[in-house]
Structure formats: C-alpha cells, structure tokens
Amino acid sequence: VSSDGDDVLQVNNGGNLDGAVVVNIAGVLGANGDPLSINYFGVGVEDAANTYNLTNSGTVWGDITASGVGGTIVIGNSGAVDGEIDVEAYGDVSVTNTGTVGDDIYAYSSVGAATVVTDGDVGSNGSWGDVEAVSSGSEVTGPVFSNNGTVETSVTTVADTGGAASVTVGEEATVGDVLAEGLASAEATIDGAVGDDNDDHNVTVTSTGQTAVTTVVDDTIDGIVGAPGVVLSTTVEVTSTGGNATVTISESGSVSNDVTVTANGDATATVDGLIGDDLDVTATGSSSSITYDGTIFAPILSQTSVDTGGDALVTIGADGLVADNVTVTANGNATLDN
Questions:
Q1: Given pLDDT bands bounded at 50, 70 and 90, which one contains residue 14?
Q2: Which residues contact 25 (CB under 8 A, 6 or more apart)?
C-alpha cells in the first residue's frame, strides 16, 4: 500500500497489479475532517483474472474504490465507511454491508454477477445513499468477410453482455435509490426502507438488452476480401436478449416513491409492504429484421417484427399498499392479483 501524498491509499501489491489481492482493515484510516480513501486498480484486462478482496471492520474516513479487475471483487463492511463504496470488475462483484456507509454503494460487472446486500444504513437521514448492482457491457464482433468471387458478405455483430444483478435491503436498513440492472436477470428484495417521508427514492429493476447483426452484401473488386464495392443490400436483425426481472417488497419493506420493473423475459412484482407512489411492471421484447436495397439509406426491400416479451405479474398481498397507479404491460400475459 502506498500513499499519493494527499488523501488516497493506493493498493499496488508490491508493484504488481495482477494476482490475488487481500486487504483487511481493523483500525482507522483518516479522521473526521481529514479523509483518507483506499483504492485499487488492476491491470484492466479481463483475461488477467486478478482478484480483490477487502474486509473492513474498522473505520474508513473516505471511500473504498476498485476498478480494472479482470476476475472477482468481494467487499465486506461490518464497520464504518464515511464515503462511498464503488467497485467494478469484469467478473463477479459482491458487496456486503452490515455496518454503515456514509454515501453510495456501487457494484458493477461487465459480464459477471453484481450483488449488493446491505443490512446497514447507506447515507443518512435526509440524504440517503443510492445502492446499485449493475451487470452490463457490450461486445462487437466483426466485420467478418466472406467472398465467392462474385459478391462479398460482411457480418458485424454488436451484442449487449451481462450477468445477474441483485440488491437486497435488509429489514434494519434505510437507503436511497435502488437499481438492479442485469442482462441475464435482475432482482431487488426490499425488507427495509427505500427513502422516507422527507426524502423520496425509487426502486428500478431492469433486465433488457439486444443483439444486432448487420449483414452487408456488395459486388466485389477482383474477388478481394474486404475490398470496397457497390453495396447490393444491407440487412439488420435485432433481437431482445434480456432475462427476467423481479421485485419483492416484504411486509417490513417500504419504498417512498416509484417502483419500476422492466424485462425482456418475465417481469414480476410482489408487494406485501408499502409503495408510496406508482408501480410499473413491463415485460416486452422483439425480434426484427429489415433489408434495404443497398445501404441503410436506400429503400426497404422487406421488414418483419415479432413480439418476444414474457409475462408480467403483479401480486399485492393483504397488507400490501400501492399509493397511486399500478400499470402492468406484457407481450405475454399481464396479470394483476390484488
């Protein structure tokens, strides 16, 4: 660990940013009015698969941050963090808080799972901190060329990536906005409080994404792969790829403002607690194809689109309350059980 001479401790693993890094904090970093944060930056390459594990049972008068980690990040806080926890990796990212966090908690992954569990407060009365678990990225493949000597075909694929995202707010915790966003799936469980009477906050749970494949056919020049020619046709195919999204608000749970659940698969909300404003649950998706007579600025030769979204289900229990509107939308079945 080295200092930048100011207010950040830099974890550098003896000059080697790769490998497995473990940090345990049981004492005090910084002081009230004299913050000291701790940061780790890995090699920034997914294939490196380096890992970072930090446990705090003491007091950090600053932030806990990490990024550029190819493998996994595991953060456990049973003490006090005056600032925020903000960590990002290519692999799985997990943050567990049983202590207190003065600002926000952010857990981000490009392809792995992102999980936040907090049984302690995030932020403070009148200024509750946000809690976000996001697993989202993108990948571009191509263009990949093939050539039969008469026409050339190039295929480019742009695909959203991501794993599962999950946020759990424990019964004793109060937090600000909650966001769970994952391509594979997204889930939020609210057993505590999101906002309060004087500080409105929302819950957003989203599992949406798409893969777009663009195929261009042109007449070739001398059969040379990749050589420019006159574009004969362009086809763009877009398919929704998100999974299921779920929110559960238990009898002890409350959300001071809106709850929004959006999925390409199934979207589900179970409410046994309180929602202070609107509940919006949407399960929609599509698979479309459009072919142009040349480039994408040319006339359309053909076009198709099919809805592919799942079911939307809202269940409001005997003790559940939604103070304002409930909206349920789906390509499949849309059900309100009240």
A1: very low
A2: 38, 54, 55, 56, 57, 58, 60, 79
CB-CB neighbours of 212 under 10 Å: 15
pTM of this prediction exceeds 0.90:
yes
Burial class of residue 264, CB neighbours in 10 A (0-12, 13-18, 19+): buried
Dist CA 187 CA 205 (whole Å): 6
Where residue 15 falls (left for φ over 0; alpha for ψ -120 to 50; beta otherwise) is: left
Place of tokens 């607690």: 273
Closest CA to 235 of 140, 146, 304, 284: 304
pLDDT of residue 4: 43
DSSP secondary structure string for all residues of 20-83:
EEEEEE-SEESBTTB--EEEEE----GGG--EEEEEESSEESS-EEEEEESS-EEEEESSEESS
Distance of alpha carbon 254 from the chain centroid: 22
How many whole angstroms from its chain centre is CA 86?
Answer: 13
Among 272, 235, 264, 276, CA closest to 331:
264
56 and 77 in contact (C-beta within 8 Å)? yes
Q: Give the separation between CA 242 and CA 264, rounded to whole angstroms.
A: 5
